[in-house]
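B., you asked whether I could sanity-check this one before it goes into the benchmark set. Here's the sequence:
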Amino acid sequence: MSDHLRIHTSEDETEETSESQTGCPECGGNVTTTSDHETVCEDCGLVVDEDNIDRGPEWRAFDSAEKDKKSRVGAPTTNMMHDKGLSTNIDWRDQDAYGNSLSSNQRQKMQRLRKWNERFRTRDSKERNLKQALGEIDRMASALGLPENVRETASVIYRRALDENLLPGRSIEGVSTSAVYAAARQAGVPRSLDEIADVSRVEKDEIARTYRYVVRELGLEVAPADPESYVPRFASSLGLSDEAENRARQLLKNAKEQGVHSGKSPVGLAAAAVYAAALLTNEKTTQAAVSEVADISEVTIRNRYHELLEAEQGLPMA
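And here's what the prediction gave me:
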C-alpha cells in the first residue's frame, strides 16, 4: 500500500511540475513569451516570469546580407597569424589604457605575463615554426609593398607546405619566400626573382629551387608572368603619364602578336616597353632610371627595346 502511495505521489509531483512549466500556475491557461522577455498567461494576464536573459545578438539586421555581416562578434580570424588571431595579445608598451606609465611592480607583473603568454601561444615546434615563417612573410610583403590578400595567400601556401611535410631539408626562410613569390604571381601583382631575393634572407638560386618544388608538390596553378602586369608599377615609380603607360601596354601586345615575348624575361620586356613608351610620348626618362626601378641591366633594356620597336613596325627579326 505504501509503495502504491509513494508511486502515486511521485506521479502527482511530475504532473504538477510539467503543468507549471507549460501552463499558468493560477488558471492553467497557455503562457507565452513577449518581446520584452516576459512570460505571460494569455488567459488571465499573470506575469509568470520576467527579466529573462536575452541570449540573442545585441544588433539588428534588416536583410540577409546585413545579418551575415553582423553575425560575428570580435576580431576576424586570419591566416597571417600562427594562432589565426584567436589568442590574447599583450602590448609591449608599459602603459595603461589612458597612456599613463605603469608603476615598477606593475611593469614587472606585465613582463611576467608577456613571457607566459608567449610560451602558451607557441606550445610546440610546429607553432614556433609557423610563427617565425609568418613573421618573415609579413616582413617581405611589407618591403615589397604587396597588398593584404597576397600576404593571406602566402600564409595559406606555407601552412599547406607545413601540413604536407615539405619543410624537412629546406629552410623556413626559403619556403616562406617561395610562398610570397607564388602568392604575388597568383594575385596578378608579380615581383621579379631579383626583387624577391633583395628582401629575402636566402640566395636567389635557393628561392627558385624551393619555389619549383613547392609549386609541384602542392599542385599550385601559377600562370606565367605577364609583362603587362609589371607596367603600372614601373610607370608609377618613374612618374610617367597614363598615356605612356597605355603606349607601353600596346607595345607589349604587338610583341605578343609577333611572338617576340617567347623565351624572354617578362620583367625585361616590361622595362623596355616602359622606356620605349616614354620616348614615343616625349616624356623624360633614362635607361639608368628604368634599370634601377626594374632591377634589370641597361643592356637587357636596350636589346628588348630594339626588338619591341621592330615588332611595332612589323619588320622581320634579324
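One thing to flag: Residues 1-21 have pLDDT under 50 and may be disordered. Otherwise nothing jumped out at me.
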